[in-house]
Specification:
The protein contains five helices and eight strands; from the N terminus they run H-E-E-E-H-E-H-E-H-E-E-E-H. With 147 residues, the protein is an alpha+beta fold. The chain has a single domain, classed as Electron Transport, Fmn-binding Protein, Chain A (Pnp Oxidase, Chain A, Roll). The strands form two sheets. It has a six-stranded antiparallel barrel with strand order 1-2-3-8-5-4. A hairpin with a 2-residue loop joins strand 6 and strand 7. It is globular. This is Pyridoxamine 5'-phosphate oxidase family protein.
Length: 147
């Protein structure tokens, strides 16, 4: 998967980190209350494509709204080796029909969601704001700054 040549260094890092994990959380508001929903994601060019279960209805609150999407490696055991990171992207969300190549990148969908047959719905976010935060151990930090 190629990196978008027009993306800033921060966006490129964010997209690279997002490619290291499969799931994250989309955040928006529903009936004036904030909510988070787990979603499968892929990065295509400078956009993030999401797959959610249609049966939850969360996509109705996301489509046409500004949403935040976040993913991290905070609970991954290997994060201690290379540090921990979080990525947050904010942008307008829209419904999409992914191409066959994009569907292959998503991989197989779950069979069930909360006991119901999984019915996928696909969304796209074109990030307007992208943030990456990293956490490293003090020993790692000392090694990074020793010259």
């Amino acid at each position: 998967m190629s990196i978008d040549p027009t993306a800033s260094a921060d966006e490129q890092l964010a997209f690279e980190l997002l490619r290291r994990t499969d799931y994250g959380r989309v955040a928006t508001s529903m009936r004036a209350l904030p909510f988070l929903a787990a979603a499968r994601h892929i990065v295509v060019g400078g956009q993030i494509l999401l797959r959610l279960h249609r049966g939850y209805g969360y996509h109705h609150a996301c489509v046409g709204s500004v949403v935040a999407y976040g993913a991290d490696n905070l609970d991954v055991a290997t994060a201690r080796q290379g540090g921990q990171w979080t990525v947050q992207c904010i942008g307008l969300c829209e419904a999409v029909e992914p191409s066959n190549a994009e569907l292959e990148l998503f991989g197989p969908a779950p069979h069930y969601a909360d006991g119901e047959l999984f019915d996928p719905v696909y969304l796209r976010i074109e990030p307007q704001v992208t943030k990456v935060h990293t956490l490293t151990a003090a020993r790692d930090r000392g090694l990074q700054h020793a010259r």
